[in-house]
Write a structure and sequence with these properties.
By secondary structure, the chain is an alpha+beta fold. It has 3 helices and 9 strands; from the N terminus they run E-E-E-E-H-E-E-E-E-H-H-E. Strands 1, 2, 3, 4, 5, 6, 7, 8 and 9 form a 9-stranded mixed beta sheet that branches.
Length: 148
């Protein structure tokens, strides 16, 4: 599984694009599985478009690689590998495949870090934003999504 973390630099700060989950409407980063034969980065970019309605340039390297646990509807817990890839947003679509049942919003990295239900993922977002500001990633180049 991977998560896309979309971000952009605006007014001297990094903003993160969050979407709502389909069922519980929690604020999350887009995520999904990696189809056989597809690179994880390309799968992250695909999910960013399908779930969040954004298109952009995905970073080649993951900013996080971790094992996470998730409970299903019957309470059983499963573990899976999670890769997080940043995606620089170049286009935000007015209509997208899952737009009829998802909301999206741009927030500060700090707000994203405290809003995302999974605290470990939230901490990755905050660390990424701090590093991106220090390195002046994408200065003046528009929006950046971080994808998992």
């Amino acid at each position: 599984m991977y998560i896309k973390h979309r971000y952009r630099k605006r007014s001297g700060r990094i903003e993160i694009l969050l979407i709502t989950s389909r069922k519980k409407k929690h604020w999350i980063l887009p995520k999904g599985g990696i189809p056989r034969g597809m690179l994880p980065q390309n799968a992250a970019a695909r999910e960013a478009m399908q779930e969040g309605g954004v298109i952009g340039e995905v970073h080649r390297d993951a900013i996080a690689d971790m094992i996470v646990r998730k409970r299903n509807g019957s309470g059983l817990s499963t573990s899976f590998r999670l890769l997080i890839f940043p995606l620089m947003v170049t286009t935000e679509l007015a209509y997208w495949p899952e737009g009829h049942f998802r909301e999206r919003t741009w927030v500060s990295a700090e707000k994203a870090g405290s809003t995302i239900t999974d605290r470990e993922i939230g901490a990755v977002v905050v660390r990424f934003a701090k590093a991106a500001m220090e390195d002046d990633v994408g200065a003046g180049q528009g929006r950046y999504p971080l994808g998992i």
